[in-house]
From TrEMBL:
One of its GO terms (cellular component) is cytosol. SUPFAM superfamilies: Nucleotide-diphospho-sugar transferases. Signal peptide: none annotated. This is Spore coat polysaccharide biosynthesis protein SpsF. It comes from the Bacteria. The lineage of its organism: Bacteria, Bacillati, Actinomycetota, Actinomycetes, Propionibacteriales.
């Protein structure tokens, strides 16, 4: 592959989340969670594209993006695979970093290191992620893959779960020629939730941002903070992550 690849971060966002409606438009520290999320991703130096839906419910997300001059793409609500493929085509990406907008404290250095590892491998068939095996806290997840593999998945994937969740066709290696690579984290903290899915998640994130300046902390500092304050980690420790297909 050529070195001058155009790699972009595509983050999915919608207002019709079921467990915590319009969660990315809620605020902490005077800023919407989506703004915290995109701000941190911008520190990677990569372009960031918000992939939302054509539903009127998501007009406020589009308005926020337009106000903050964040590139946006609108596509299907349920066929998120086609939405990502559409975003990649529209913005002429050669490779995609997939993240989700319910990660307002995602660490840009963690993402950037993953992208550099993917580049160094120089393999169009490589799917690289830090969550094939859980070693990071939830809320730090990313996936990197070529546009070619994304477009192939969009053309061939037929299972509902593959289309709703974008990447199972790749990380389950349904084509048979995808190379999988997991980036692990030696520091620990995989038991922690720094993701926004429920009201208790929101309570924790709001406290971390407003009382501990968490929006300025990296992943290791966030883990150290939760290690030092088990009462904070307990706020959402009981939450079970939704399973694939739920």
């Amino acid at each position: 592959m050529e070195q001058a690849l155009k790699i972009g971060i595509v983050t999915q966002a919608r207002a019709t989340s079921t467990r915590l409606p319009a969660k990315v438009l809620l605020e902490a520290g005077g800023r919407k969670y989506l703004e915290h999320h995109v701000d941190r991703l911008h520190r990677t130096g990569l372009p960031v594209i918000v992939a939302t839906t054509v539903n009127a419910d998501d007009d406020p997300i589009v308005e926020l993006c337009e106000r903050d001059e964040i590139p946006v793409f609108r596509g299907s609500e349920d066929d998120v695979l086609s939405r990502f493929a559409g975003a990649a085509r529209t913005y002429e990406l050669d490779a995609i970093v997939r993240v989700t907008s319910d990660c307002p404290l995602i660490d840009p250095e963690v993402v950037a290191e993953g992208v550099e590892r993917w580049r160094a491998e120089n393999d169009e068939n490589l799917y690289l992620s830090n969550c094939l095996e859980r070693t990071y806290p939830r809320g730090m997840d990313y996936e990197v893959f070529s546009a070619a593999r994304l477009f192939d998945a969009d053309q061939k994937a037929t299972l509902k779960a593959d289309r709703e969740h974008v990447t199972p066709y790749l990380h389950q290696n349904r084509p048979g020629d995808v190379r999988l690579l997991n980036v692990s984290w030696p520091i620990g903290g995989s038991q922690y939730r720094l993701t926004l899915d429920t009201e208790d998640d929101r309570k924790l994130l709001s406290t971390l941002i407003e009382e501990f300046a968490a929006d300025k902390l990296d992943c290791a500092e966030l883990v150290a903070l939760l290690d030092a304050h088990p009462e904070l980690a307990a706020v959402n420790a009981h939450i079970e992550q939704k399973k694939l297909g739920e």
